[in-house]
Amino acid sequence: MKIETKCIQSGYTPKNGEPRVLPIVQSTTYKYDTSEYMGKLFDLEENGFFYTRLANPTTAAVEEKIAALEGGVGAMMTSAGQAATLIAVMTICSAGDHILCSAAVYGGTFNLLGVTLSRFGIEVTFVDPDAPLDEIQKFIKPNTRAVMGETIANPALNVLDIEKFAALAHRNNIPLIVDNTFATPILCRPFEFGADIVIHSTSKYMDGHAVALGGVIVDSGNFDWAASGKFPAFTTPDNSYHGVIYTENFGKAAYITKARVQLMRDIGSTPSPQNAFLLNLGLETLALRMQRHCENAKKVATFLENDIRVEWINYPGLASSKYAPLVEKYMPNGASGVISFGVKGGREAATHFLNNLKLAAIVTHVADARTCALHPASTTHRQMTDAELKECGISSDLVRLSVGIENVVDIIEDIDKALD
Ligand SMILES: *Cc1c(COP(=O)(O)O)cnc(C)c1O
């Protein structure tokens, strides 16, 4: 099936007389005829549900759809994107291990890796993702166990050279994890370029309506944990789980199975079946919505690029962007819906601009159907001086605009009037 069809059809195929629409199975628990059968479930010898912390029929159907969209062997949903990042890393790393991560990542990822995981002994080095391969290689250590980056970085909007990062990871026998939140599998499928694991905050475009937090981890099945020789936790018995050896018992699904039966079991950051149902509704229209987000963002970016009231603009989908060649290669159908730009007149002018938007709402969220805007210097980063802002790559005039799927004429008119 083509990807637009998978958005609608994958994951749930009702049998004769069953509900046409994916049902919400709001049950923590499942009933069995015999204890023997339940025992087999716990030994992972039978496929089935035993507790919603680990798996649920509604959630499982949505996981199957997302795995199909990304082209992976399996997926596991989480209660939020942050939990997906946490479990994606913890499935691989223990205290004493090291991760190499693009410096252009979501602030939450930056804190999770740089502050919280470092408290638990997992070290991280943040690198300039645009640096040449051999320069980034210098930051790889003997204990480095994963390389990470974002397809389109939130909010910096760097486009990741996925093949370069995959080459870096694989020459060191470690996997590449890509956060594909802003691109979604509609615009880019990182597995096709060598990524091994994909994660998402489904709270953004996948849900698309700003109604349900969520995250997901997708396993390509391509990384050979045994051949690498660096991952004994995959190739020796897990005594906390009946002595299973993930690579031997689960083959290509070793990683995603370990993530579920070991980490989700212990951490419990499970999505609710209700939220899985809402995410599925969003996914059904994902292809249509992404097309419109891209078209609208390109028109808005072109308007801003040609406007004298605008100091600078950053949208990877513009021909003038330094990322244009990477966009052409990795996401030829569009560069998603988020733009950043500077209003002439600095911090004060940017604040005025935000206050005068009528259609675009001031919110912290990005990437849903409604156009919204954020001025970090007067909100999320307001305690910082201009010099401090510059150090973290945010200018005082920076406005982050998440272009929605309204009629673009109305979006541009709103921006035009607010700039006036
Ligand atoms: C929002 C976001 C996250 C975190 O996801 P939540 O669902 O908010 O926990 C992670 N990565 C990226 C790129 C994001 O935009």
Please outline the helices and strands.
Blueprint: H1 3-9, H2 35-42, H3 57-70, E1 74-78, H4 81-90, E2 98-102, H5 107-119, E3 123-127, H6 133-137, E4 144-150, H7 162-171, E5 176-179, H8 184-187, E6 197-201, E7 215-219, H9 225-228, H10 232-235, H11 246-250, H12 254-267, H13 273-284, H14 286-305, E8 310-314, H15 324-330, E9 338-343, H16 346-355, E10 361-362, E11 372-374, H17 386-391, E12 398-402, H18 408-419
Parallel strand pairs: 2-3, 2-4, 4-5, 5-6, 10-11
Antiparallel strand pairs: 1-7, 6-7, 8-9, 9-12, 11-12
Bound molecules: pyridoxal-5'-phosphate.
Describe what you observe in this structure.
- With 420 residues, this protein is an alpha/beta fold.
- It folds into two domains: 3-281, Aspartate Aminotransferase, domain 2 (3-Layer(aba) Sandwich), CATH 3.40.640.10; 288-419, Alpha-Beta Complex (Aspartate Aminotransferase, domain 1).
- It is 39% helix and 14% strand.
- It has 18 helices and twelve strands.
- The strands form two sheets. Strands 1-7-6-5-4-2-3 form a seven-stranded mixed sheet, with helices on both faces. A five-stranded mixed sheet has the order 8-9-12-11-10.
- The radius of gyration is 22 Å and the shape is globular.
- The termini are far apart.
- Bound molecules: pyridoxal-5'-phosphate (PLP).
- Pyridoxal-5'-phosphate is lined by residues 80-82, 106, 108-109, 150, 154, 179, 181, 201, 203-204, 213, 215.
Keywords:
420 residues; alpha/beta; Aspartate Aminotransferase, domain 2; Aspartate Aminotransferase, domain 1; globular; binds pyridoxal-5'-phosphate
